[in-house]
Amino acid sequence: MITTTHLAPISLAELDAAASLQTRVDRKYLVPTQALPAVVAALDPATRVLEIGGQRGFGYESVYFDTPSLTSYLGAARRRRNRFKVRTRTYLDSDRCWVEVKTRGPRGATVKTRQEHEATGRTELDDPAQEFTTELLGALDGPMSPTLVSTYDRLTLHVPAVQQGRPDSRTTIDTNLVWTDATTGSERVLAGLAVVETKTGSTPSSTDRALWRLGHRPVRISKYGTGMAVLHPDLPATPWRRVLDRHVAPATA
After folding, report:
1. Pick from 80, 119, 129, 123: which is nearest to 103 by CA?
2. pLDDT tens digits, residue range 162-213?
3. What global pTM score does this model have?
4. Is CATH 1.20.950.20 correct for 8-248?
5. Alpha carbon distance 111, 1 (integer Å)
6. How big is the CA angle at 196 (ends 165 and 207), to the nearest 5 degrees?
7. Alpha carbon distance 55, 48 (integer Å)
């Protein structure tokens, strides 16, 4: 349990206005859950936590889609310049859902584009969702179908800019991450670890600096890429090999 009672709240509307960051630089860290209190205590005192209806932690579900030849996965695994991800993201507490496309922008930035989607149909791309993805990605090498589901609990923080004139940033802390194969139902749990992600402009945030002071360094982890590699160890997984070998290597028979 992460205690944030010392942090002031921020509403979703305020957070989106101050740090929407649909184009951003993402830095990810794997932090032992037992170390999270120290991380939270080290945050800038001006950090605010997303609060909706008196609640600060929220459940998320992401359903990832790929082509029959795994164009999205292999693009990330082979570090192709035009790599992308397509997913539906459902906010489980409000039952709101979006279809999202993530692509690469200049200098390695992540560009996220999204539109609303029916939560009851989150395991498929309906006609509007297919038109949306085609408009952004062009024709692919086959129809997209669900390949992986990830569920987790998220705490979202608004982090003021380190320097005046720089954009504010977000930090997310994801715990209880479970990967599920969308075809077989096989599951793997990221036990004892949280995924902490900073979403900034080009300049690292005060959260990054706090994590560095505590000895945590960015790692290459992708909820889609790493999850697929965990559940399908025959797939190429070079970008995530260090994380897989150290933290989430597939179980052996």
Report:
1. 80
2. 766 567 889 999 999 999 999 999 999 999 999 999 988 778 999 999 999 9
3. 0.93
4. no
5. 31
6. 35
7. 13
